[in-house]
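User: quick one, fold this
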Amino acid sequence: MISRRKLLSSLGLATTVAALPSMLMVPDAEAQTAGMERRQDRREGRHERRENRRDARQVRREGRRDAREVRRGGTPGTAGTTATGVTTGTAK
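Assistant:
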């Protein structure tokens, strides 16, 4: 004869073993309500706009850098080097 204590223990162990595969294969968390989905959509939109602004800013900076080099007599794309005769401060 099996005691109630052993029966409940065995039943709990069997339930845990049966539920283990489903707990290990939980998909990524997703929004559970319409409000959470809208919030996630807004967040993704903000991230995209932010990235687009950064990219545009980088392009503008490169354009200004190249134009500056052309004005100074250098070749575009060689930013960081000084053209002949141009100093960047006072000599000591």
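User: anything notable?
Assistant: Residues 42-72 form one domain.
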